[in-house]
Amino acid sequence: MMAPMIDDGTSPFGSFELKFSSMDKLADIARADWDRLANPPERAFDPFVSWDFVQALEECGCATTSTGWSGRHLVCLDSNDQILGLMPLWLKSHSQGEYIFDHNFAEAWHRAGGYWYPKLISAVPFTPVAGRRFLIAPNETQAQVRGAMIRALEEIGQQSGLATIQINFPKDEDLIALETAGWLLREDRQFHFFNRNYSSFDDFLAELSSDKRKNLRKERAKAQEGLTIVRLTGDQIQEEHLDHFFACYQDTGERKWGNPYLNRRFFSLLAERMADKMVLIMAQDGDRWIASALNFLGSEAIYGRWWGRLEDRPFLHFELCYYQAIDEAIARGLTRVEAGAQGGHKLARGYVPVSTWQASWISDPLLRAAVSDYLTRERAAIADDSQWLAERMPFRHNVHQMDMI
To answer: Which SUPFAM superfamilies does the annotation name (predicted)?
Structure first.
C-alpha cells in the first residue's frame, strides 16, 4: 500500500515533500522509532500505543491476517527518509474486537450492492481506550504532518476502492483535525472515575449522596467477605498468577463472545515486557484463586482491561474492576480510572459519563449522506441520554456533577 508524495506548502519551513509507505508488521519498525513518536516525553504515557503492547498482539497471533487483522501500519517520511509520523493501521475483514458497532452500515451497504469490507481501521485491537492515533512528535510541524497523513489515508482509500476508513477512539488534536478535514464523527460513551485529589477511598465516598455512600460500603463489605484480595505489579506477577487470570478470562470470554480474542502467550509476553505497567487484582478463597482483573498504568490513568471469574460472588465484579482500581488510582496519585467500554451501572459507583469518538471517511457520496443522517439522529439520542444521566449523578455537589460530563 503506497500513497503519493504530498507537497505540504503550509510548513513553517516552506514547501517540503512527505512520502508514505506501510509496514505489514510492527516488528519491521524499530522499537525505538515507534516509541519515540508513540510516547514522547512531552506526552502522557499511553501503554496501549507502545511498541511492546501492539507488537505483542501481532507476535502472539492475536491480531494477524488469520484473525482478520492485517497490518498496514502507515509510515510518513521526509525527503531524507526520516520518520515524521506513524499510525497503527489494519485492513479488516470484519468488525469484531472494535467495541464500536457498524454492522448495520455493513448490512445496508451490502443490500445496496456494495462491499463494506475490507475496511481500513486505525485502532489498538481489542482495546477501547481513547488515545493518539497519529503518532507525531509534538513540535511546530505536527499539524502539517497530521494533515498530510489524513490526506494520504484518503488517497489510499480512493486508490484502493475502499468503502470506508475508520479511526477508533481518537482524541484531542487528532479528533479536531479529522473533524476539520470533513470526516464523519460518531459519538459514544464510557464511564470514568476522576480523582479529585482524594487521600483515601473514604474521601471519595464523602462526596457521594448518603444513599450511594451506604450502598457502596455494603457492596464492598459483601464482595470481600471470606476473601483475600491482592494487587500485584512488576515482578510480583508470576506465571502462576497469569495462569489463574487466564482461566478466569477464558470463562468470561466464552460466555460473552464464544471465543476469547487473546491467547495465553500474549499475557506472558506483556509481563516480560511491561510488568511495571500492569496491575493484576486477584481474589482468593482459601487456597483457590476465583477471580481477577488486569489493569494497565499510564502516567495519568489506570485502565481496566480484562476481568474474569470462576465463581459467581455478589458484587465481586464491582470490587475488583471498579473499587480496587479507585484505591490504586488514589494510592498512585493518578487522575482517573478508565474502566472499559459501556456500563451504565458504573454511574451509581462514582464513574461519570465521558464522550468517546470514531471518525470515518466514506468514499461513496450516497452512502456518506445516509451514514451522516443516521449519526445526526444518533447524537440527538445520546444528548437526551446525557441529560438523563446528569440528573442521576451520585454526587452531593451539583456543580461537581455537571463539570464531569
So the answer is: Acyl-CoA N-acyltransferases (Nat) (SSF55729)
